[in-house]
């Protein structure tokens, strides 16, 4: 039986052992459509997210919203979450043990939603599932892999919107890769 997302969040807010919990203002749980076909996974909350409790609300989030509109989607159509649920101090990269502490929370979210496609926003989320891949070669390429006891088998790595904000060529690449999402979703639906 699928667990309700709110129940999952309440449980993990109480029971998460992540050390980042001590320095963050609050947990930044996943947000969006609990029946979404697409789940976007980022790295970790930033300052704005830590203040609001909502993922991707800063400048990277505004850019993500802009990209969603180019493929005729809104936040309400998708679900968005992060590998870790608490902001690392000074926005540093999350440590392996912090990712590990939040992993079961993330997996429970994904099992509850059971999306058709997971889109990785950046190398950290991609490497949590595919540790040997490099974002520079994997971005924009659909990955098909079955994991045991896991409902999703299609993955699309993309550059992180924050990285693309400050690099014009990366921005173009991200926009181009992002526009592949509708056709990838159609392809997955035809296979299933």
Give a brief description.
The chain is an alpha/beta fold and 192 residues long. The protein has helices at 5-15, 47-52, 59-70, 96-113, 123-129, 135-138, 161-165, 168-178, 181-191; strands at residues 31-32, 38-42, 79-82, 117-121, 143-144, 154-158.
The structural domain count equals 1
- Cα gyration radius (Å): 15 Å
> Per DSSP, what share of the residues sits in E-state strands of 2 or more residues?
5-15%
Structural class: alpha/beta
Give the tags.
globular, Uracil-DNA Glycosylase, subunit E, 9 helices, 192 residues, 12% strand
Fold and architecture overview:
This protein is α/β, with parallel strands linked by helices and about 190 residues long. It has one domain (about 5-190): 3-Layer(aba) Sandwich (Uracil-DNA Glycosylase, subunit E). It contains 9 helices and 6 strands. A 6-stranded mixed sheet has the order 1-3-2-4-6-5, sandwiched between helices. The two termini are about 20 Å apart. The model has no long low-confidence stretch (mean pLDDT about 95).
Layout of SSEs?
Elements: H1 5-15, E1 31-32, E2 38-42, H2 47-52, H3 59-70, E3 79-82, H4 96-113, E4 117-121, H5 123-129, H6 135-138, E5 143-144, E6 154-158, H7 161-165, H8 168-178, H9 181-191
Helix pairs in contact: 1-4
């Amino acid at each position: 039986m699928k667990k309700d997302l709110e129940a999952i969040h309440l449980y993990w807010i109480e029971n998460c052992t992540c050390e980042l919990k001590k320095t963050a203002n609050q947990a930044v749980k996943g947000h969006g459509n609990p029946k979404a076909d697409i789940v976007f996974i980022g790295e970790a909350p930033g300052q704005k997210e830590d203040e609001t409790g909502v993922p991707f609300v800063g400048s990277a989030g505004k850019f993500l919203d802009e990209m969603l509109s180019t493929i005729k989607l809104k936040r309400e159509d998708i679900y968005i979450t992060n590998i870790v649920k608490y902001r690392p101090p000074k926005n540093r990269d999350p440590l392996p043990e912090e990712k590990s502490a939040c992993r079961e929370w993330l997996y429970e979210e994904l099992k509850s939603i059971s999306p058709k496609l997971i889109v990785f926003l950046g190398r950290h989320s991609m490497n949590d599932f595919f540790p040997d891949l490099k974002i520079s070669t994997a971005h924009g390429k659909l990955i098909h892999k079955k994991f045991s006891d896991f409902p999703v088998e299609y993955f699309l790595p993309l550059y992180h919107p924050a990285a693309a904000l400050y690099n014009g060529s990366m921005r173009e690449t991200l926009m181009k890769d992002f526009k592949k999402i509708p056709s990838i979703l159609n392809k997955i639906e035809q296979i299933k």
